Amino acid sequence: MTLFVLKLGGSLFDKAPEVLRRVANSGADVLVVPGGGPFAGLIRDIDKERRLSEDAAHWMAVLAMDQYAYYLHDKTGIELTPLLVRKKGIRIILPYEVLRRQDELPHSWDVTSDTIAAWMAYKTGAGLIKATDVDGVTLEGCLQQAIDASALKGIETCVDLALPGFLIDHGMGALVVNGLVEGRLEDALKGKQVIGTYITSKNHV
C-alpha cells in the first residue's frame, strides 16, 4: 500500500473542498494534513499584537489546523481521525491530538503545517506532497523542477523555514504541486511525473 501524506495549504482554502473531492475520487490512500489557513492567520495577528509565548502560539496555531480539518470534513464528509496510523482510503488528521501525545517538534513560527506534515509522513513511512496555489518552488523567477533541500535552508519560499532541515535530517523528499490545476495532484498521487518541485535530500531514495 502506497500511502501519501497530503499537506493541503491554507492558500487553497476557497477551493479546498473541491480539491479534496478530486483526491477522494482518485482512489489514492491519503492522510490529509490541513494547513492553518485563515484560522492560523488570526493567531499570527494576535501574536503580533499581544506577544504570545512560543508555546501558546504553537498550540493555538495547531488548534487552527484542527479548525480547518473540521471545515473540510463539514464540506466533504471525509472522515476525521485523531490517529496517526496507516490505513486505506482518505482521512483528514486532527493534528492537535496527535501532537499533544507526541510533542517532538520545536515551538516556533518556523515550524508550520509543512513541517508537521513532514513529521507525520516520517512517522508513517508515507510519501509527502504539499498542495498549494503555485506550481512549485520558484527561485530568482524560475520554477525549480528538482532541488536539494540544502539549497532552501534559510530562504523564504512556498515551504516553511523548518522543512528543508527536517527533510535533510530524516533523509526525506517532498513534492510541491499546484492543487488548483485539475488532474495534476491526482497524477502525483498515482506516482506520475508532474509539473512541480521535487525537493530531495542526500539520504532520500
Total separate domains: 1
The backbone outline, from C-alpha atoms, is globular
CATH topology: Carbamate kinase
SS strand fraction: 15-25%
Number of strands: 10
SS-derived structural category:
alpha/beta
Nearest-integer average pLDDT: 94
CATH architecture: 3-Layer(aba) Sandwich
CA-atom Rg in angstroms: 16 Å
Return residue spans where pLDDT drops below 50 for at least 5 consecutive residues: none
**What order do the SSEs take from the amino end to the carboxyl end, as H and E?**
EHEHHEEHHEEEEHEHE
Overall CATH class: Alpha Beta
Main sheet record: 8 strands, mixed
What does this entry look like structurally?
The chain has helices at 16-26, 37-50, 54-76, 95-101, 113-124, 163-169, 184-189; strands at 3-8, 29-34, 80-81, 90-93, 127-132, 138-139, 142-143, 146-148, 174-178, 197-200. It has 205 residues and is of the alpha/beta class. It has a single domain (3-200), classed as Carbamate kinase. The chain has an eight-stranded mixed sheet, sandwiched between helices.
